[in-house]
Amino acid sequence: MAEISFPLPDLGEGLIEATVLEWLVAEGEQVERNHPLVEVETTKSAVELPSPQAGKVLRIFGTPGDTIKVGDPLIVFEVPDDTAGIVGTVPKEEAPKRRVRLNAVLDED
Amino acid sequence: MSETLEAPVMQEAGEGPAVETLSMQQALNRALAEVLAENPRAVVLGEDVGRLGGVFRITDGLQARFGEQRVFDTPLAESGILGMSVGLAMAGYHPIPEVQFDGFAYPAINQIVCQVGRMNYRSRGTLPMPITLRVPSFGGIRAPEHHGESLESLFAHVPGLKVVSPSDPNQAYHLLKHAATRPDPVVFMEPKSRYWQKGEVDLDAAAHGFRPGGSRVAREGRHVTLVAWGAMVARCLQVSELAAEDGIDVEVLDLRWLKPIDAEGLAASVAKTRRAVVVHEAPLTAGLGAEVAALVTERCFGTLRAPVERVTGFDVPYPSGDLEDEYIPNIDRILFGIQRVLEYRRG
């Protein structure tokens, strides 16, 4: 298994921190991509952060009321080693399918 | 440039079992770790290769093991990644840059063509460029635009560069270790759709006669040679099993090195089968299949039973999503290619 850390992103233009309002996932929980992770408040607004990826939540940082700086760890996911990259999906290994049949007279063999 | 066709180098057997089942990701990760351990001048750089371990996990754990001086993240600027690599090479290092996706190589084309490929020539051999440029390449993972391109003919056209593409974990492990010890720049095109498939890696292959240079007969056959590289080798092996059901014995030639191309290996295979179909994901026009067809024609004109067939991508931008299956040569298109060379008659 591999660990992937997701730091608090810049949620606006030049914001430097955010305050945790409520965690919407718990450690040990399996989440899908875009699942709401946490509600945080910045100096501009309260926003819900969607999960950047699928995985098991290994660690979350900060309890309600805590301030987290942009770039500091927010959440760590555990993902299987063979999980695809951030872009794209793992191709399925399928039994080969065909419609074309070869029909040739080998005149020299 | 030094010749890639050379005798196998004997190496000490590593710890543990000589054969392990690894994915291509794991095989490449293992190879990089060994290169970093063996060569203190080797450095790995690129976008997200450090703390994250790469979007495909190829550099996973390397920064923790070798430190931020040897495995480091760069800004999102491919021209900078390659420019820095040129400087490192001039200073005596062996940089192993990663361009995160094939389509991101375009901003670095100036550095690749005008510096990486030429510095050794320009300096009369005083500034060699031992750069191993890793490029996750080709399509097949349902990624958006810029994430599924096949740039081998662009790279192969640049004097001074070597180009290689592994087809399975064993090839990936050994070819990367080989490339990363060369004095010349090598573009290492990793078939990203094959990253997750597992295969046996013979870690002691050097002692078992693994040849890092030239092409490789992946399957022997008598009636037709399928020439392929990267992810298309696995597909051609599938096709060869299906063709066998119809009584056609297909040879699959894994070209491996796309510059220089192993013309002798190519000719030896086609001289035997007398028919060739070249399969690649890149667009047809001015693709590497044309080079293969020319080499085969030059060397096997007298014995060829049919013109060389090309089964390739189309002359369109690489499509994302489900259209990928229509673009990448599929089993039926390759079978049609075989049928065309089988039924061709002169006159």
From TrEMBL, chain A:
Classification via Pfam families: Biotin_lipoyl (PF00364)
Protein name (database record): Biotin attachment protein
Keyword Nucleus: no
Top-level taxon: Bacteria
Organism listed in the record: Arthrobacter hankyongi
PROSITE patterns with a match to the protein in the record: BIOTINYL_LIPOYL
Cofactor: (R)-lipoate
Keywords tagged on the record: Acyltransferase, Transferase
Protein's UniProt keywords contain DNA damage: no
Gene3D superfamilies linked: 2.40.50.100
Domain Lipoyl-binding: 1-78
Automatic annotation (TrEMBL), chain B:
The protein's name: 3-methyl-2-oxobutanoate dehydrogenase (2-methylpropanoyl-transferring)
Signal peptide per UniProt: none
Transketolase-like pyrimidine-binding domain segment(s): 22-197
Necessary cofactors: thiamine diphosphate
Organism of origin: Arthrobacter hankyongi
Top-rank lineage group of the source organism: Bacteria
Coiled-coil region list: none
InterPro entries documented for this protein: THDP-binding (IPR029061), Transketo_C/PFOR_II (IPR009014), Transketolase-like_Pyr-bd (IPR005475), Transketolase_C (IPR033248)
Keywords: Oxidoreductase
The keyword Oxidoreductase belongs to this UniProt entry's keyword annotation: yes
One Pfam family hit: Transket_pyr
Gene3D superfamilies the UniProt entry points to: 3.40.50.920, 3.40.50.970
